Amino acid sequence: MDARLLIPDNVSEVLVKIIRFTELRRRILHQNLHHVDQPGFTPRDLPVREFAEVLSEAVAEHLRSHRLLFRDTATITFGPNNTMQIQPVADSRARSLLRTDRDEYMELQVNKLLENSLNRKIAQELLRHQCGVCPGMTDGDINETVAGDNSSTDSSPHLDAAE
Question: Which of 2, 70, 71, 118 is most buried (CB neighbours < 10 A)?
Fold first, then answer.
């Protein structure tokens, strides 16, 4: 028997990270919609490009050495028990639009939410396929599987404090 068959595929771990990231980003984007009338409000987002680069590097490392290694960055930190903390960043483009063209600002936020939702749905479907989960499994079931016992450990203290 091939010993590699006993090692779980790291694709599932990457998909779980994507699902967690998209949930955290959804919260931030919702704040951007709900707090537009707050004086001095600064729209934020999660560092999407940075997160994609971290995942690309982890997958490249996996292909080279058969181990999945997530490296911390200035705004993304990986911890024990599969946790990650992400520092939201100010969204200067959104801030500018909020000041000059509120309709464009709202459209930007809605488009980001739609893109984020699509990314989440794709990752969930791939995870279902990867893990052999039955097609009838609901999003709630996936969320329970992904979040574990303490989903708040997947966000940064800065993100939690902002909510």
Answer: 70
